[in-house]
Amino acid sequence: MEGLPFLPGYTFNDVTRQQHNVSPNFVYKNGYPIVKEPSTGVGGEPLDIEGVLYCHTPDPVSYDPSLTYGRTQQHVPSMFKPHFVLYDKKCLAFKAFFKQGVPNSPNEHYRVHHVNLTYFLEDDTVQIAEPTTPDAGYPQGTIVRRCKLPKNTLGEYFHWKDLNNGVDLSANGIVYHICSCDKWTREYLMSQGVEVNEDEPLPKDPYTDRRIMENTTKSYKTPSFADKFYKFLVYDKKVLRFTGVWDDRDSEYGTFDKYSILYYLADDTFEIQKLPLGRERRAEPYAPIEN
């Protein structure tokens, strides 16, 4: 029955239908008829367009959404990197110090030890080392080898969130006071939302300052002495020459004369010679005035 053509003699009416009314196509508003789309068919039955047969959905197998929405960009997921690869060779560097008491000493009561605190982001381990000082008089080097530092007795360990300037850190019975950090450490902590405190100056060690004062080498400067033979070998035949005039024309029988002033570097002596004024007066050489 469904495949028959819609022609006279091939259609059949429903004999059980009791209502044959048609829904109105107009709606009056303010006295004007307005066309309304029919919501029901003859006799109040649903329209054919609302049936399942009239629901034309694209075939999910043969339908290509790119024909309608365009080609989508393929998202290439980034390569997964484990924690120890992502933070390999990345450390947080801090400057800290601790005080060590010196009993039974009349010269000092305590010593200040400067240390470098390194936190490894790869495995959350900490290393504390004291930089070596020449002729310190006591052993220096690594104080705490690279390991996880216990934070309390509950099994917790120190994390990079616990490190900041002005914070005290206890390790193996020694309390370290963190004073400063480098530029990369400050930028990393601030990028993670940690407010980094201002850097504090490291206190000086009175024991080291006293040893530096005691071991300072005093320098002596030998005064120079006049060596005439040395000056003769170096400055022989080296003369400084100056030219001067003597203007005595304001007085009676005064003249205007030129002089040559010679300074001998070999023996620090002067010689003053009178120079002729013209070619007609150079018949006889002038003897030196002072030698």
UniProtKB/TrEMBL annotation:
Keyword Cytoplasm, does the record have it?
Answer: yes
Gene Ontology process terms (BP): cilium-dependent cell motility; mitotic cytokinesis; mitotic spindle organization
Report keywords, A-Z: Cell projection, Cytoplasm, Cytoskeleton, Repeat
The keyword Nucleotide-binding is annotated on this UniProt entry: no
Domain (DM10) spans 88-193, 236-291
Name where it's found.
Cytoplasm, Cytoskeleton, Cilium axoneme
GO MF, one annotated term:
alpha-tubulin binding
Q: Which domain of life is it from?
A: Eukaryota
Gene Ontology CC entries for this record: axoneme; mitotic spindle
Protein's name in the database: DM10 domain-containing protein
Q: What species was this sequence derived from?
A: Lygus hesperus
Q: What is the lineage of its organism?
A: Eukaryota, Metazoa, Ecdysozoa, Arthropoda, Hexapoda
